[in-house]
Structures are given as structure tokens and as C-alpha cells.
Amino acid sequence: LEDSIDTLAGVDVVAEGTSGVQEAVTDVQDSVGALSSSAAENFQPEVDATRGALEELEIALGDTESAGGN
Prior knowledge:
Blueprint: H1 2-9, H2 13-39, H3 44-66
Helix pairs in contact: 1-2, 2-3
């Protein structure tokens, strides 16, 4: 999870566009899914909060693409 978040933070939006961000977000979502499976109920609130934040980021990316972003 940490590596996928680092990758997301390091995306060069100018060079890679929103598709680069979307790919990195997908990797983070996959990592969160794996964490959710292994964390069971102990960290479920944190996992749910992370999923919510990722969903909001995806919505923002969609809005950017609709507005003419890359």
C-alpha cells in the first residue's frame, strides 16, 4: 500500500495526464482491497475512509477530464 501511495504522489500530471493519475489510483485501490482482506475488522474504519477518499479523487479526475483535461 505504501509503495502504491508513493507512486500516486509521484505522478507527473503534466507528463502523464489524468490517465497517469487514474492508473496510480487504481493501484492504490487494489492495495487497499488487499489490506481490507487481511486487516479484518481491526482497521475497517480506516480502510473505509481511504476508499471514500479514493472515490472522491476519481470523481475529481472525471470532472477534470470532462472539463477538457488530459
